[in-house]
Amino acid sequence: MGYAPQLYCAYTIALTADGILSLRVMSVRTLLLLIIAVPALLVGGAIALGVTIPVPQWGRDYVLRFVFDPGAQPLELPDIAGPDDPDRPLVVIDAGHGGRDPGSIGQAGTSAQVLEKDIVLALALALRDQLVEEGGIRVALTRDDDNIVTLAQRPEIARQLNADLFLSIHADSAPTRSDVSGASIYTLSTEASSEAAARFAERENAADALNGIVIDGQSAEVSAILVELSQQRTQDDATEFAALIEREGQGRVKFHPQTRRSAELAVLRAPDVPGVLFESGFVTNSDDRARLSTQQGRQEYAEVLARAIRVYFARRAQR
Ligand SMILES: [Zn+2]
Asked: What is the tally of structural domains in the chain?
């Protein structure tokens, strides 16, 4: 409203000889006003629209979906059970699969169908309860319900919690060989281990301390070597833990004839947290299934694994 008299002025001055100049000056002023006023009106309109239509929420959703890929989302770290003392050793127990990913399926399509994701979650919870009951060890679970956790997130949870040990629990299947049974214990293969070390060094650019070795500020070559050394020590510890599971399980857990194995397993790639993957048995074998899906059977596994974890930490404390 304030600029209406000026517009009127511009027209009257335009009638004189040098009024043309005046008109141009006034036009520029008018244009400037329009340049300010029109966007202001548009913004005002947009804000008005934003109030009636949930445009801002839309926008956020859009940005989230495109800016973060699932692996880049900040991790939600789980609660830690057990003593409220950071000096106590911490084990992260990882129940494999979950959510949309059922893992292996036993007796598929029948009413007695058994899903790996359920079996391993029950085992993980039983082991946590066993450790907490015995005391002295802190325990965290990568999942304590039927949620999906990505493969990359599982060891990353252990790393971010500064865990001392990582145990991933799974159950096998051999759909065409129902006689195949028994538990096996996996560690990361040597080739996969050094390859993972190299990749880790590259990715993290060695900005952290690994296993107490400060590698920040080192050259890329030196830090690659230090990461490799850290990885080697981590793998030695993992191998020792695997041997303890086998030892403690003698006579209590039925093992597969080839008990100890190594493979390129993404979940065991943390270069600074020793990790073992425990295949608890075959969901496709009736004896294993009975052991894995009863409370009594689970308790047996929980006691064996808890004892292996306890002995492992006791040895670490003496070093
Ligand atoms: Zn599995």
From this structure: 2
> Per-residue pLDDT for 44 more than 70?
no
Domain assignment of residue 125, given as a range:
78-318
Ligand 1 centre to CA of 80 (Å) is 24
Q: Are residues 246 and 195 in the same domain?
A: yes
Same-domain pairing of 312 and 238:
yes
Structural domain contains residue 293: yes
- pTM value surpassing 0.70: yes
Inside any domain, residue 72: no
Least confidently predicted of 19-28, 190-199, 308-317? 19-28
Q: Ligand 1 centre and the CA of 102: distance in Å?
A: 9
* Claim to verify: residue 155 and residue 104 sit in the same structural domain: yes
CA–centroid distance, 252 to ligand 1, in Å, is 22
| Position with higher pLDDT, 41 vs 318 | 318
Q: How confident is the model at residue 266 (pLDDT cuts 50, 70, 90)?
A: confident
Residues 184 and 298 in one domain: yes
CA of 105 to the centre of ligand 1 (A): 10
Say whether both 57 and 107 belong to one domain.
Answer: no
Q: How far is the CA of 103 from the centre of ligand 1 (A)?
A: 5
3-state SS track over the chain: CCCHHHHHHHHHHCCCCCHHHHHHHHHHHHHHHHHHHHHHHHHHHHHHHHHHCCHHHHHHHHHHHHHCCHHHCCCCCCCCECCCCCCCCEEEEEECCECCECCCEECCCCCCCEEHHHHHHHHHHHHHHHHHHHCCCEEEECCCCCCCCCCCHHHHHHHHCCCCEEEEEEEECCCCCCCCCCEEEEEECHHHHHHHHHHHHHHHCCCCEECCEECCCCCHHHHHHHHHHHHHHHHHHHHHHHHHHHHHHCCCCCEEEEEEEEECCHHHCCCCCCEEEEEEEECCCHHHHHHHCCHHHHHHHHHHHHHHHHHHHHHHHHC
Q: Ligand 1 centre from 318 Cα, in Å?
A: 34
pLDDT recorded at residue 145: 96
Q: How many angstroms separate the alpha carbon of residue 155 from the centre of ligand 1?
A: 15
Q: Per-residue confidence at 30, pLDDT binned at 50, 70, 90?
A: low
Cα(173) to ligand 1 centroid in Å equals: 9
